[in-house]
Specification:
Strand 6 (172-177), helix 9 (191-200) and strand 7 (203-207) form a beta-alpha-beta unit. By secondary structure, this protein is an alpha/beta fold. It folds into 2 domains: 8-117, Aldolase class I (TIM Barrel, Alpha-Beta Barrel), CATH 3.20.20; 133-223, TIM Barrel. It contains 10 helices and 7 strands.
Length: 223
């Protein structure tokens, strides 16, 4: 990701790879800090708000977890409560790395706001969730917006909602992203970053799901 001053800002994705363990989360923070990343990002959610109790797991989830366990039960174990967030934020401060988290519901937006996070990350899947965008936009925080499968009109509408809700455009960074895991090289399309920058005049970045580091280097080289 690039800031307005053209300085590279690298975010290490921890996600839910802590498996619900604070100790594993701290190990992920350690690795991110030692690698030179500027920030490490987790996920904040309430299972009750994002999945029904009867939801089944996706096939890829069944391959690595208990097939008899529901998606709700799996997700529930990955929640981080307020106290855990506070502990991880404090630990990040000790390690001199920025704590970030993606909120997936309104309760989680409020939690992160109460914890005084300075940057909010909006995932690709919420770019057309208008109430969600208005909520985050009203906070007046710095925002990182992933585009995923959205088209250029949807990106523009999301930006309009965020700015009309109270966030200044200069505080928004838009990340070109592909929702394939891993993303095939032929589908990377880094030129989309430049299209977004030209169309909307915002800071840009790239959210990488490819294997290796070559695409990240190319993204930085493209500005």
């Amino acid at each position: 990701m690039y800031s307005a001053s053209k300085e590279v800002f690298i975010i290490a994705e921890a996600g839910v790879n802590h498996n619900g363990s604070v100790e594993i989360a701290k190990k992920l923070i350690n690795v991110a800090a030692e690698s030179g990343a500027n920030a490490v990002k987790f996920q904040t959610f309430k299972a009750e708000n994002v999945v029904t109790k009867n939801a089944q797991k996706a096939n890829y989830q069944k391959q690595t977890t208990d097939t008899l366990e529901s998606q709700f039960d799996m997700i529930k174990k990955l929640e981080l409560d307020t106290n855990t967030h506070e502990e991880l934020i404090s630990y990040c401060q000790e390690k001199r790395i920025t704590f970030l988290s993606t909120p997936f519901d309104h309760d989680s937006i409020n939690m992160l706001s109460d914890l005084d996070l300075g940057i909010f990350k909006i995932p690709s899947g919420e770019i057309t969730n208008l109430p969600y965008l208005r909520h985050i936009g009203s906070l007046g925080k710095r925002i990182i917006l992933s585009t995923g499968m959205s088209n250029i009109a949807e990106v523009g509408e999301a930006l309009n909602i965020l700015t009309s809700s109270g966030t200044e455009k200069k505080d928004i960074t838009v990340l070109h992203a592909n929702t394939m895991y891993p993303t095939p090289m032929e589908d990377v399309n880094l030129n989309a970053m430049l299209t977004i920058q030209k169309e909307f005049g915002v800071a840009i970045g790239y959210s990488d799901h490819t294997l290796g580091i070559e695409v990240d280097i190319a993204a930085v080289a493209m500005g």
